[in-house]
């Protein structure tokens, strides 16, 4: 998944460089062999969004992430309480062993097996919780992505940009003039749209 994202970002970066060179050298791209027509994109309108800033300031993103974190904390607290109860049962078992508190060896073996079975269930519960949280995080990200793409599709009907790039800290856009950054306007409109729902 990261390789695909990296590949797409590299292609977008190359496309921006080509458009930049073509725009400022005044030369059009060579004729297309398929269409037989010249492609001149010297008037290309390219902007970008800072996704880190957008997700930090977008109300729906904040709400979804806050709800996700609360759920994760609740699950973690529940698991920690069960682990603590298991630990206490283990300590009680050890005290009984140390003080010959079991009437028979079979009774001690049975309680030990019960403790180990509880431990396995706790480990399984932790693994399932981790997988559920990862799945829910992916669903949350997909929901936000879909909302942003749906908004940008409508937004671009008005603005008519040729290319809207996305950047993050350490992403492919290392420098852009401030006029190319549409993040603030997009966040304001996204929040207004979300508040209206």
Task: Describe it.
The chain is mostly helical and 197 residues long. It folds into two domains: 1-44, no CATH class; 45-196, Skp domain (Protein Binding, DinI Protein, Chain A, 2-Layer Sandwich). Helix content is 71%, strand content 5%. The chain has five helices and two strands. The chain has helices spanning 2-25, 51-57, 59-98, 105-159, 183-196; strands at 46-50, 163-167. Helix 2 packs parallel to helix 5 (183-196) and helix 3 packs antiparallel against helix 4. The longest helix has 55 residues, at 105-159. It is rod-shaped and about 90 Å long. The model is unreliable at 27-39 (pLDDT under 50).
Could you list some keywords that capture this structure?
2 domains, 2 strands, 197 residues, two-stranded parallel ribbon, Protein Binding, DinI Protein, Chain A, mainly alpha
Summarize the structure.
The chain has five helices and two strands.
The structural class is: mainly alpha
State the assembly state of the protein chains.
Answer: single chain
- Which regions contain 5 or more consecutive residues with pLDDT less than 50? 27-39
Q: Given the C-alpha coordinates, what overall shape results? A: rod-shaped
| CATH level-4 homologous superfamily of the largest domain | Skp domain
Radius of gyration: 28 Å
Number of discrete helical segments? 5
Domains (count): 2
By CATH reckoning, the class of the largest domain would read: Alpha Beta
């Amino acid at each position: 998944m990261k390789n695909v994202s990296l590949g797409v970002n590299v292609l977008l970066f190359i496309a921006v460089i080509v458009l930049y060179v073509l725009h400022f050298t005044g030369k059009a791209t060579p004729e297309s062999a398929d269409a037989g027509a010249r492609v001149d994109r010297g008037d290309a309108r390219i902007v970008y969004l800072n996704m880190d800033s957008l997700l930090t300031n977008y109300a729906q993103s904040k709400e979804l992430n806050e709800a996700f974190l609360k759920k994760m904390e609740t699950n973690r607290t529940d698991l920690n309480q069960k682990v603590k109860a298991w630990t206490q049962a283990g300590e009680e078992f050890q005290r009984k062993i140390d003080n010959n508190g079991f009437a028979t060896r079979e009774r001690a073996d049975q309680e030990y097996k019960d403790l180990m079975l509880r431990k396995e269930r706790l480990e399984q519960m932790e693994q399932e919780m981790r997988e559920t949280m990862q799945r829910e995080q992916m669903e949350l990200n997909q929901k936000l992505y879909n909302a942003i793409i749906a908004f940008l599709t409508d937004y671009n009907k008005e603005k008519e940009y040729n290319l809207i790039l996305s950047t993050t800290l350490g992403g492919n856009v290392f420098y852009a003039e401030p006029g190319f950054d549409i993040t603030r306007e997009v966040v304001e409109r996204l929040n207004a749209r979300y508040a209206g729902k």
